[in-house]
Amino acid sequence: MITKSKIYWKYCFYLLLAFFWLLYPGQQSLLKKAGLNYSAFIQNQPIKFKPEALPRLTDEIEKPLVFAQSYLVIDLSSFTPILSYRPVQKMYPASLVKLATAIVSYQHYPLEQQLTVNKVINEELKMGLVKNERISALNLLYGILVYSANDAAYTLAENYPGGVEPFVQEMNLLAKRLEMKNTHFTNPIGFDSPKQYTTAFDLALLSREFINNQVLLNIASTKSITVSDADFEHFHYLNSINELLGEIPHLGGLKTGTTDNAGQNLISFYRLNKKPLLLIVLKSEDRFVDTRALIDYLNSNLVFIEIT
C-alpha cells in the first residue's frame, strides 16, 4: 500500500532530479548563454572623477610682510603649497606638539574615561589640576587644545600604560606613520629640548591628520569653556589664548605654542570661499600679526582654478 509519506518523498526525489538537470554545468542553454555573454550579468557604470580646483596667486599685489623665521600656507584639499619660507627648516615646536598628544590620547582613551592626576605640573600654562583629581579624557583634551595646559598634557601621558615614555613613543610612531621625516618628540608638553624638533611641512602633515578628526577640530575651535572633574568638586575655566579665534571669520583654531627658544608659533585652520587652508607660522615675534598679514594677502590674491 502506497502511503502519503511515500508519495511525498517520491515527488521530492523527482523535483531534486529536475533541479539537477536544469543546473548541470555545460548542458543547458541558459548556462551556455551566461558563459558566452558574461557581460550581460555585469552592470557597467561610468567612473565619475572631478579633480580638485587648484590654488593660484594672482600676483597683483606685493607679497605679505611676514617676520616669522619659517612659515607655510597650504591648500588642504590638494595639499598644494601656496606660500612658504623655509618650510623644511628644523624648528622648536613648543606646544604645537600637543596636536600629537591629542591624537594619541584620542586613539587610546574613550572620551568618558576618568583619569587620575598623579603628578601636578605647575610650569607655565596650566588648568589648575590638583593631585588625585579624577577628570575625563575629554575635559583634558579641552585643557590642552583650548588653553594649552601643560598639566593636562602630562596627565594624559602619565595615565598611558607604562607612563609618559611609552606615550611619547606612540607620538613618534604617529610621526613616522604620517611620514614626518624631520620630526622627533621627547615630551608631550612641548618643553624645549635639542632632540625635540619639527618643520612647518611636517606640522602640515600632523595638522591634516588632526583636522580629519571632527571631535578634535571642534575642541580646538572652542573659544572658552568651563570643565569639571568627575565629582564636580573642581571646576576649570578655559579661555583660548588664540587671539584670532572668534575675531577672524572662517578661522577655526588650531594651536598656539611659545617658548624662549621656539619664539611664537601658531597653526591656523582657515576657509577661503569654503576652501580649507592651513597657515603655519614658526618663530615669530608676533604670530597673530604675521597670520593676519597672510590671511589678508590670501583674501586679496588667491583664486582657485577649476581643471576641466
Blueprint of the fold:
Blueprint: H1 4-23, H2 29-36, E1 54-57, E2 70-75, E3 80-85, H3 98-108, E4 114-116, E5 134-136, H4 137-146, H5 150-158, H6 164-177, H7 200-211, H8 214-220, E6 224-228, E7 235-239, E8 251-259, E9 263-272, E10 275-284, H9 287-301, E11 302-305
Antiparallel strand pairs: 1-11, 2-3, 2-10, 4-5, 6-7, 8-9, 9-10
Helix pairs in contact: 3-4, 3-6, 3-7, 4-5
Description:
- The protein has 308 residues and is an alpha+beta fold.
- It folds into two domains: 4-41; 55-305, 3-Layer(aba) Sandwich (Beta-lactamase).
- Helix content is 34%, strand content 21%.
- It contains nine helices and eleven strands.
- The strands form four sheets. A five-stranded antiparallel sheet has the order 3-2-10-9-8, with helices on both faces. The chain has a two-stranded antiparallel sheet with strand order 1-11.
- A hairpin with a 6-residue loop joins strand 6 and strand 7 (235-239).
- Helix 3 (98-108) runs antiparallel to helix 4 (137-146), helix 3 packs across helix 6 and helix 3 (98-108) runs parallel beside helix 7 (200-211).
- The model has no long low-confidence stretch (mean pLDDT 89).
- Belongs to the peptidase S11 family.
- Residues 62-284 form the Peptidase S11 D-alanyl-D-alanine carboxypeptidase A N-terminal domain.
- This is Peptidase S11 D-alanyl-D-alanine carboxypeptidase A N-terminal domain-containing protein.
- Substrate binds at residue 255.
- Keywords: Cell shape, Cell wall biogenesis/degradation, Hydrolase, Membrane, Peptidoglycan synthesis, Signal, Transmembrane, Transmembrane helix.
